[in-house]
C-alpha cells in the first residue's frame, strides 16, 4: 500500500490492542519512537489516548491491530476524531525474533507498519448493514423480531 510522506510536525501512531488495556506508540517521520503508553479500553481511556497522541504532534494516521475485535472501539473513536486508521494485518515477526513479545514493542511495530505502509490495509467501516444485522442477532435485540 503506497503511503504518502509526512508533513513537518506530523506523527504516526500504532496501537497493540487487548481486552482491558491498549498500548499506544508514536513515531516521527524517520521512525524514531517519541513515546509509548498504556490506556484502559474505556471511553475515558480512549479520550486520554487521543489527547496523548495529539500531544506528540499532528497525528496523520494510526495503525491498529485487531480492528474487528479488541480494536473496534478505539478504531471508531479515532475515526470520529477524523484520524485515518489502518488495520495492521500481522505481527512483525523479525522484530519479535530480535526483541521478544512485548506489548509496547508491538505498538511500535504497528506504528512503523502504518508509517511505511507494510502489513496494513484500510480499516473496514464497522457501521454498515451487515454489522447492524449481526448486532441485532444478539439476545439484546431478540425482542425486535
Description:
With 145 residues, this protein is of the alpha/beta class. Helices cover 35% and strands 26% of the residues. The chain has five helices and six strands, in the order E-E-E-H-E-H-E-H-H-E-H. It has helices spanning 43-55, 72-80, 93-99, 103-116, 129-136, and strands at 10-16, 21-27, 33-40, 58-65, 85-88, 120-122. Strands 3-2-1-4-5-6 form a six-stranded mixed β-sheet. A hairpin with a 4-residue loop joins strand 1 and strand 2 (21-27). The N and C termini lie far apart (42 Å). The model is unreliable at 128-145 (pLDDT under 50).
Task: List descriptors.
single chain; 145 residues; alpha/beta; six-stranded mixed β-sheet; 6 strands; globular; disordered C terminus
Low-confidence stretches: 128-145
Mean pLDDT: 81
Strand order of the largest sheet: 3-2-1-4-5-6
Gyration radius (Cα, Å) is 16 Å
The secondary-structure class comes to: alpha/beta
Main β-sheet description? 6 strands, mixed
Put simply, the count of helices is: 5
State the shape.
Answer: globular
- Write the H/E string, N to C: EEEHEHEHHEH
Helix-residue proportion: 25-40%
CA(first)-CA(last) distance: 42 Å
Number of strands: 6
Strand content bin: 25-35%
What is this entry, summarized?
The chain has 145 residues and is of the alpha/beta class. The protein has helices at residues 43-55, 72-80, 93-99, 103-116, 129-136; strands at residues 10-16, 21-27, 33-40, 58-65, 85-88, 120-122. Helix content is 35%, strand content 26%.
SSE topology sketch:
Layout: E1 10-16, E2 21-27, E3 33-40, H1 43-55, E4 58-65, H2 72-80, E5 85-88, H3 93-99, H4 103-116, E6 120-122, H5 129-136
Parallel strand pairs: 1-4, 4-5
Antiparallel strand pairs: 1-2, 2-3, 5-6
Amino acid at each position: 500500500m503506497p503511503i504518502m510522506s509526512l508533513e513537518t510536525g506530523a506523527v504516526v501512531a500504532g496501537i497493540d490492542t487487548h481486552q482491558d488495556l491498549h498500548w499506544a506508540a508514536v513515531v516521527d517521520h524517520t521512525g524514531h519512537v517519541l513515546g509509548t503508553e498504556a490506556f484502559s479500553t474505556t471511553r475515558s481511556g480512549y479520550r486520554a489516548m487521543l489527547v496523548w497522541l495529539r500531544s506528540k504532534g499532528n497525528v496523520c494516521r494510526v495503525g491498529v491491530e485487531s480492528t474487528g475485535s479488541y480494536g473496534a472501539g478505539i478504531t471508531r473513536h479515532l475515526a470520529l476524531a477524523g484520524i485515518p486508521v489502518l488495520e495492521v494485518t500481522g505481527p512483525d515477526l523479525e522484530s519479535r525474533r530480535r526483541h521478544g513479545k512485548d506489548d509496547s514493542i508491538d505498538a511500535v511495530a504497528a506504528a512503523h507498519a502504518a508509517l511505511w505502509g507494510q502489513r496494513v490495509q484500510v480499516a473496514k467501516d464497522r457501521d454498515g448493514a451487515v454489522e447492524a444485522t449481526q448486532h441485532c442477532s444478539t439476545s439484546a435485540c431478540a425482542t425486535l423480531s
